[in-house]
TrEMBL record:
It comes from Natrialba aegyptia DSM 13077. This is Alpha,alpha-trehalose-phosphate synthase. InterPro entries: Glyco_trans_20 (IPR001830). CDD domains: GT20_TPS (cd03788). Residues 1-37, 499-532 are annotated as: Disordered. Coiled coil: none annotated. One of its GO terms (cellular component) is cytosol. One of its GO terms (molecular function) is alpha,alpha-trehalose-phosphate synthase (UDP-forming) activity.
Amino acid sequence: MRVPDSLTVVSNRQPYRHEYDTEAETNGNAEPDAETGTDTAAISVDEPTGGLTAGLDPVLQETSGTWIAWGDGDADFDVTDARDCVGVPPEEECYTLRRIDLSDDAVDAYYRGFSNRVLWPLCHGFAELVEERADDFEWYRTVNATFADAVAEHASSESVVWLQDYHFALAPRMIRESIPSSATVAQFWHIPWPSPATFEYCPEGKQVLEGLLGNDLLGFHVERYADAFLDCVRRYLPDAAVDRERRTVRYKGHTTRAVGTPMGVDADSYDQRARTADADRLHALFERYDIPQNVTLGLGVDRLDYTKGIPERLTALERFFEANPGWRGEFTFVQKATPSRTEIPAYARHGDLVRSEVDRINRRFGTDDWQPIVYTEDILPADDLCALYRHADLLIVSSLCDGMNLVAQEYVAASVDGDGTLLLSDRTGAHERLSENAISINPTAVDEFADRIEDALTLSPQDRARRMDALRKTIFENDIDAWMETQFEWLSRVHDGQWTAPNSQSGTDDAESGANSESDSDSGSHERTSLV
Ligand code: GDG
């Protein structure tokens, strides 16, 4: 992997969180540190357990880089130095974690406000759920500026700064303007990008676009999101020169490249965990949730989010049981829904709707010894989740809009017996990669959706095995390591000024030649010399 020598990662969530261990405190076991007076014995550290954070942590360890993130643990700032930095992992201290201290008001406005009441619904096409509150955007700008200042303190002329996600739409331009021009600024946007017609509802749309165009490289899961981003730039920033073929934008003398690179999962770890899930673990899990042992099992694993299409899935299941009474008592659907962003009214309403639909359907079809839907909001340990994945005969992902969707990929990686079936919404980024061997669903066409559930349950064992085998090949070939390798390859190319656009026939850098006939408003003033 071509990892940059000087890498700075910026994300909202941190890889390590320090928390006071309340048990040690109450037992009186806490030992105050001789120098600081802090009860270090009473502090425990949460380590990264999954997803991108766990994938990036070893990379940062290898490069001795810097990770800048919100310090949300109650003991976080009792272990940092005067610059809010702490060496991590705790035992080895291979790289620097720089923590950003945010007030409750800042978190409420930046995270629960502009990020999740405006950008999240908008990017998923739910313009009607956009909720504008006074001050949220100003806080969002302030928090982005705080992160940008921290980046500037750590950056060198060789730095590659890699921001994660929609919490930082304004920071790239701020960073670009405050660090050496030879450094590289890049971002991965983990959620979809909307059409220009939807983006019109973004209250601060122009500033969001201008902020993102501070990046040298802007990554999305799939190319159609990158194209939608370029369409929005063309529509709402008429001074920008957009080259759709090369996927570049030249604006105020700076060139941004937009790419689509679908993210994978740590397939080996899901595979291993699923293989080691023994009968006792499964038995205990089934007992805990009252799941009958000898039924066909369906599974859904989602954050309790209105984008995930859970009510549509429940309606399709209801139709399925209506049309197929023979499956009553024979098929149980387990829905694991993790509550998230519950302070936001749209999420609270959605949670109520899902719970009441589950109750209604269970009252309609349930008997003394069988419920069609087993519903839990518990957060399961990864080993339990993998045991469920392995045992589930089918998994349903019915998102109405989803940047990628990792659950679909985790299920495939954990299907070590090769006999599960994936039903996958055609509105997920993952569908572009898995559609050939998954059963595709349109989540809003609920009658057809119900038919697809029946199809999945009646596939021949050979067809099921063939599909799963092909899916597993895809998932293992395109795992999180492969994705990171691609990211670092793009980053290195941009950093070294050797960019070749994804679909371009030309092997030369296109920063200048890519411009369309629209003129640059400030040509050349901020362009990094190595790129032109
Ligand atoms: C965003 C984008 C994109 C859930 N419950 C438990 C648990 N989980 C884990 C899953 C999975 C993750 O949460 C959910 O990931 P998704 O990709 O499905 O969805 P988002 O949270 O919306 O993620 C999405 C992703 O970013 C990455 O770029 O794919 O499109 O929306 O990893 O396993 N894990 C455990 N217990 C639970 O109860 N251990």
